[in-house]
């Protein structure tokens, strides 16, 4: 008998790999900032205009009895004091304009929940005990300290095993009232009932078929079954369920309530209206909260699953939390469905980005998560500053002193490999990420054109290709530029000696132990693995050139500092998001390069009061062309005057001689 296990809250799968760290960081920031602003404004408005609907005691004019009704219902009479008929000239409105709570927000309620494979409820008394999963008395609305937790198990109904829905039947009423709508003394003014699915039909992610490329293909291999053209929808079940009352909704414009929230609002069952015929009442909102139900923690239901656990948390929830969770959950589920059916989503992706953010919240320490939110905003700012400084540095640079051209070419190659890898895994890659990768490649190509001329020349006799791409110096190299070129060759020579064997070893290991979709996928995956593992080595030639030239004046100091500060922020992300220890260790590799660079800046100090030997200011800015021309013009005028004074051409004696 297969049995699913109850998953502790927050327990998700380990996230592998580092390629999505930055992507998740940016998605997280943008969503957080936009959501915080939107819901912050809503929360402030709601708080400023909030009216308390706690119970007040009044006298029923018809019976003379004291009754407890909601207060501050903005002109809508309490349900128990409603007029028996509409006012003269009033028109009954099928869809009410405003709705008010039918019971005070601090009421006590009884709640019963049963499970069934049928949408139609059976009498509560006839429900087997194992399907009577929740029976709580005197639950206090608006009291956040009143929390109930129930754990149980139940046998999976046969219909649910075969793709049927597991329905939850919810019976809620005031203490002492009959909760069963099948009974004759059931009173809709004191109790209400609704049905809600406890299983979810979600599209399964397509899993790419992989194989070990070294294994021989069997001769009698059976033909592969044709895959269905559309998405595969599966029936998912999560063992943790949260039922949250939202007692402080207050008086609402029914039409203005968002569809994501309105699906949980249940109007008074008889369709009664106030004297104007415009306004109605609603029962306390019970939010069947699936927000924290992650897909990777769910069980796919089939005939092998015969018993399931169920943990129920009963609590109260603030309106702003209800609004946030219901909106995000409904929208993300709809986005996942649209993506599964081939629709293009704004920003790309497959609708699972919200789940990644949920995992970050569930798996991280709240304090560390708060710090990460702050520094991740700083990460975006530094990324933008580094981009601008890097462009400005290469745009103003007039020579290639201290520049490792091979490193730039290697960066073009590595970013191209990453782009091909993202294309190979395009199902899980946003088109925005692909676009930013292309922009990065174009910028690296542009950097090459700033230091060398890229030319297409006829190939040498006997070559396989008629033309070849060559890199030619823009002008005759100075002695320092020649040294830079020489040191660049030396640095890459030793990197080849150390890096190529590692790349070959990694390729052999991956070919022998891993499975791949194809030989092309294997090559790209191996190359991108090497890029992620050894990409930081591309900074070593620049450090070696600094060491041999005994100078760092040619380095883009601002851009370097921005980039290295971002490495520390990446370290913080690495310790916020769950991942293997070795991968966390790998995120520290760039820090080693950073500390070496800091040492070089200390060892090869720059005199910021003068222009350096490479024609650049100490603040990593080239001399402004216009200012240089003005200075040269002034100097020329002074030289002419000095020459004239020396020759005496501007004196009276010279004029007399003439």
From TrEMBL:
Keywords (A to Z) from UniProt: Membrane, Transmembrane, Transmembrane helix
Key word Zinc-finger present: no
Pfam families from the UniProt entry: CLPTM1
InterPro entries linked to this entry: CLPTM1 (IPR008429)
Topology term for the membrane: Multi-pass membrane protein
GO CC, any one term: membrane
Protein location: Membrane
Entry's transmembrane regions: 367-389, 401-423, 429-448, 494-513, 519-545
Origin superkingdom: Eukaryota
Main location: membrane
Disordered, as annotated region: 639-658
The keyword Transmembrane helix is annotated on this UniProt entry: yes
Similarity remark: Belongs to the CLPTM1 family.
Protein name as annotated: Cleft lip and palate transmembrane 1
